[in-house]
Amino acid sequence: MEIIENLAGFTKRFATWKGDEKLEGYPFIENKHTPFTPVRRALPMLNLALISSAGAYIDGMDPFDTDSRDGDANFREIPVEIEATDLCYSAKGYDVGAVRKDRNAQIPIDRLREYEENSVIGKLNSVWWSISSYIPNAQMVAEDLAPKLSERLARYEINAAILIPASRLCHQTLGIIARRIELGGIPTIMISVNKAIMEKVRPPRTAYYDGELGSVVGPADWPEFQRRVLDETLRTMETFDQPGTRRLGVQMESKVEAARGER
């Protein structure tokens, strides 16, 4: 199965795109078919990978290139022990304020380590993967970035991966990557706040709700909301028996709590 169907058509349309930062006229890819790998282990037995497209990098590393028309198709492999204060962000396409205030809004290391300590998941992998929030060249993602990431996950003996986009464009990027990872035999799930793009790209599993770009896991400094999003997403992953998109039920309850001042 192709990661990008009708790649030649995308390449032709991309060549005429004017490179507008707001993605006006951008030729989002459109797939009809979806790869799918069943979840073969229960959550408490998983070695879980986290892939974030918030553009995070360790202070002192080279930042991602967000000025290139094609984007930066490299990734950073970051140990889970790295503190939030040691991270910087090459942000484009989303407001970086939330993740700087609380990285768990986009990169839920602390939440997932809580899950590991409480045996909700077997373990969070010893490193997580960071990519740029701005990679317009989808062909580069499919032919370069996605295969390399898939290979790294296989080397770490990953059992499942959760992918968390930060911007509109990286909903597409991570959707492509999820498709390649599942072709390699590892199940994935994406958290999305843009259903329309997911329905075009067709990653294997998507959990979506009406959240905000830049805080896709939940608002900064609201751990209860973040746990609710992650818990429902991970438990939903186990129930898919075919590719698809499912709406999370986290929003209404949290709005009521906020209105009562219970946040």
Textual characterization of the structure:
By secondary structure, the protein is of the alpha/beta class. The chain has one domain. 34% of the residues lie in helices and 16% in strands. Strands 1, 3, 5, 6, 7, 8, 9 and 10 form an eight-stranded mixed sheet that branches.
Task: Give a concise summary.
This protein is an alpha/beta fold and 263 residues long. The chain has helices at 7-16, 97-101, 109-117, 138-155, 168-183, 195-201, 223-237, 251-259; strands spanning 47-52, 56-58, 75-79, 87-89, 123-124, 127-131, 160-164, 188-192, 205-208, 244-247.
* Uncertain spans: none
Count of alpha and pi helical runs:
8
Distance between the termini: 45 Å
Measured as a percent range, the helix fraction is 25-40%
Global shape: globular
Mean pLDDT score: 95
Number of distinct beta strands = 10
List the helices and strands and how they pair.
Layout: H1 7-16, E1 47-52, E2 56-58, E3 75-79, E4 87-89, H2 97-101, H3 109-117, E5 123-124, E6 127-131, H4 138-155, E7 160-164, H5 168-183, E8 188-192, H6 195-201, E9 205-208, H7 223-237, E10 244-247, H8 251-259
Parallel strand pairs: 1-5, 1-6, 1-7, 7-8, 8-9, 9-10
Antiparallel strand pairs: 2-4, 3-6
Key terms for this structure?
263 residues, alpha/beta, two-stranded antiparallel ribbon, 8 helices
